[in-house]
Write a structure and sequence with these properties.
The protein is of the alpha+beta class and about 350 residues long. The protein contains nine helices and 23 strands. Helix 4 packs across helix 5 and helix 8 crosses helix 9. Cell wall formation.
Length: about 350
Amino acid sequence: MSKHKLIPNTFALKCIADSSITWPQQQNEFDKNQPYIVVGEGSNILLLDESFHGQLIQVSNNQFVVSETPDTYIVELGGGLNWHKTVVQLLEQGINGAENLALIPGTVGAAPVQNIGAYGVEIAQFVHAIEAYDVQLNKIVKFNNDDCQFAYRDSIFKHQTYQGKSRFIIETVWLKFSKGAQVVTEYGPLKQFADDYQRQHNCCPTASSIFDEVCRIRQSKLPNPHKLANAGSFFKNPIVEQNTALQLQQQVEECLDMPIYPYADNLVKLAAGFLIDKAGLKGYAVNDAQVHQLQALVLTNKGSARGADIALLAKKVCDKVNHIYAIELQPEVRFISSAGEVDAVSYLNTLLDKS
């Protein structure tokens, strides 16, 4: 166990944990009755305070093992692996399917918690099984895909808690890919790319070409956290009834060209970045916390912002979008206080009460 360790995070916020544990090697030093948080690369967290009075847990498993059936690949992945490097390694071994998820920061173990997704693909589509340590039962448990209760940017791992803390520490993830799977190009800018590729090459795009295009798009739209501190998409894309979306398009002039994506039944997904942009919030700042000037879905730390500044900026963004469009935005990132994880929406509502 190490003492007083900085918690890794792409917002470049200084927050020191009282102690840190490398999992599972130092599992015997883990005290489940003390506060703890499980953090991969810190690419989806907002640290609200400058200290965390508890244990920082970091999973170090890094196995990458491929097995095959006649129709599928089953890939066993350690929870400590970097996700993007895993996508690269999959493609190098001729395993297609995850290319739309290229350049999403974070670890393999964190990916199912959030059910990461991009350009029409979610990791939930590939999860075959997950092995995790159950803090409550003090043993390793295994989940199949249905057990994970995947939803949009959500899973059972977000909601099952032990004494208010994460109940499960994901150690291993098995992904299942169909051999000969078709690339997914129906979402957003990939559709135009696929059409152009078909005309130029007289065939569908390859998985490698989709990977390259996704990387190009993300690098052009999202700031590099090593150069400008951020946690990627800060807000979830809101899911609303189809009639609500159509009314917005018909009644609000700036929403005439608002993107609407089918979701389920009578529900559709709206682009949160579009709403934030049309609300005039690009470049809006609270001290050194700022809405990115090119991608409104991203909140940034220009240098000396505190976690409280970023949270207050998020609150102001949510308030203005709700005031103009009657659409409630919810943070996608996890909020971590000095005592542990807190519900992001509830925390922002607390700020609302104080304003």
